[in-house]
Automatic annotation (TrEMBL):
InterPro entries in the record: MoaB/Mog-like_dom_sf (IPR036425), MoaB/Mog_dom (IPR001453), MoeA-like (IPR038987), MoeA_C_domain_IV (IPR005111), MoeA_C_domain_IV_sf (IPR036688), MoeA_linker/N (IPR005110), MoeA_linker/N_sf (IPR036135)
Biological source species: Dactylosporangium sucinum
Pathway recorded for this protein: Cofactor biosynthesis; molybdopterin biosynthesis
GO biological process: Mo-molybdopterin cofactor biosynthetic process
Keywords per UniProt: Magnesium, Metal-binding, Molybdenum, Molybdenum cofactor biosynthesis, Transferase
Enzyme kind, highest EC tier: transferase
Task of the protein: Catalyzes the insertion of molybdate into adenylated molybdopterin with the concomitant release of AMP.
Designated name of the protein: Molybdopterin molybdenumtransferase
Catalytic activity: adenylyl-molybdopterin + molybdate = Mo-molybdopterin + AMP + H(+)
GO cellular component terms given for this protein: cytosol
Domain MoaB/Mog: 173-313
GO MF annotation terms: metal ion binding; molybdopterin molybdotransferase activity
Gene3D superfamilies given in the database record: MoaB/Mog-like domain, MoeA, C-terminal, domain IV, Molybdopterin biosynthesis moea protein, domain 2, Molybdopterin biosynthesis moea protein, domain 3
């Protein structure tokens, strides 16, 4: 009999396995880098800004007033130095401030005509940005392992990057086991609707993968399981998620299929409730198979417990951090097992939600993550608890 591994140890184990198997970095054009992961630190290639730039429309002046107007500098122009006191140039916001400038005076705070600026007062805080004000050349702006967002892409472009060295997004597949599953229509007469085939690919995409293959349902025979796993490998999946079949019952064929394919277990059963049993194995070709339970809520416990740490390792990101939130109500423990309890945030506190049976999805749809109750403990209202968030897209969590 396989003894279950502690939940925290399981997360670390699959993360380390993913890190060891992470593909090499590759240069990616900025426009294609969104959602990938920085393989190298983002280091400034130049001072930011690279040259002094005006923050306002106005006049770059040298010496005391009045100032004779000797030119104009628009954004994108090269500015010739101001060499004589009593001279100025008209300057636009973003324009290069000429060498020799003593001050930039706002146009609305000056008295001028076509030939000269007769008076104006510079503000106490200079109205131009100096080189290196945001960052000096060679400064590290972001560490390796940072997810690439539109903001990161914009920052990289401002530093002069044309490409970013990134870890590629892992390719994933989903196999939903079960002859009892319907893919359309109403459940009944012993058949249930497949809720995982339509929903799990979306969760996998939110976790940063490219879903390249989905098959739902897969028949409850060993031959069908083996063929489905081979098809997912042929589709290029590096992570193959399966649902159901993780027990050892008469129609549970995942373990025999893994044995037939020569897989080795990374983690085989985890001491967590709900979600028992779950596993991660590695095929001889390096692909990972994440065996998730078939009951929907248990499926998502396995997703956050094993799949997300595995994907973090594969993409070069850090192990997904756990936040700490005060509980809004008591949460029972589950004896020697870690309890992952669905919670939603209300006024900054994590409140357990109803309808959280292992086969239910209503509670999950109203939750933002799972509160972690350690083995031999219970969650107490008002006390801090670790929370495992569900994967989200930018802007989904307020």
């Amino acid at each position: 009999m396989t003894l279950p591994i502690a939940w925290a140890d399981a997360r670390k184990t699959v993360f380390e396995a993913g890190s060891a198997a992470a593909p090499g970095p590759t240069p990616v054009p900025l426009v294609d880098a969104d959602g990938l992961t920085l393989a190298d630190p983002l280091v400034t290639l130049t001072d930011l800004p690279a040259f002094p730039t005006s923050s306002v429309d106005g006049w770059a002046v040298r010496g005391p007033a009045p100032w004779r107007i000797v030119g104009r500098v628009l954004a994108g122009d090269h500015a010739e130095p101001l060499t004589e006191p009593g001279t100025c140039v008209e300057i636009a916001t973003g324009g290069m401030v000429p060498a020799g400038t003593d001050a930039v005076i706002r146009i609305e705070e000056s008295d001028y005509d076509l030939d000269a600026v007769h008076k104006g007062t510079a503000r106490e805080l200079p109205d131009w940005r100096r080189p290196g004000e945001e960052a000096d050349r060679g400064d590290e702006l972001l560490p390796a392992g940072t997810p690439v967002t539109p903001g990161v892409i914009g920052l990289a472009a401002s530093c002069g990057y044309d490409t970013l060295t990134c870890r590629p997004a892992p390719k994933s597949a989903l196999l939903v086991f079960g002859d009892e599953l319907l893919t359309t229509g109403l459940p009944g007469d012993g058949r249930v609707r497949d809720a995982l085939g339509p929903s799990l690919p979306a969760w996998l995409r939110r976790a940063g993968t490219e879903v390249v293959h989905v098959r739902a349902p897969v028949g409850d025979t060993l031959a069908d399981h083996v063929a489905a796993l081979r098809a997912a490998v042929d589709a290029g999946a590096q992570v193959i998620c399966t649902t159901g079949g993780t027990m050892h019952g008469p129609v549970d064929h995942l373990h025999p299929a893994l044995a037939e394919l020569g897989a080795e277990y990374v983690v085989n059963t985890v001491a967590v409730r709900p979600g028992f049993p779950m596993l991660v194995a590695q095929l001889p070709g390096g692909q990972f198979v994440a065996g998730l339970p078939g009951n929907p809520q248990s499926t998502f416990v396995a997703l956050v417990s094993l799949v997300l740490p595995l994907l973090a390792g594969l993409t070069g990101r850090p192990l997904p951090p756990l936040s700490s939130v005060p509980l809004g109500a008591d949460v029972p423990g589950r004896g020697d097992f870690t309890h992952l309890a669905l919670v939603r945030l209300v006024d900054g506190r994590a409140h357990p939600v109803p309808h959280v049976g292992s086969s239910m999805l209503r509670g999950l749809a109203n939750s933002f993550g799972f509160a972690v109750v350690p083995p031999g403990a219970k969650g107490v209202a008002g006390e801090q608890a670790l929370v495992v968030p569900l994967p989200i897209l930018d802007g989904e969590r307020a």
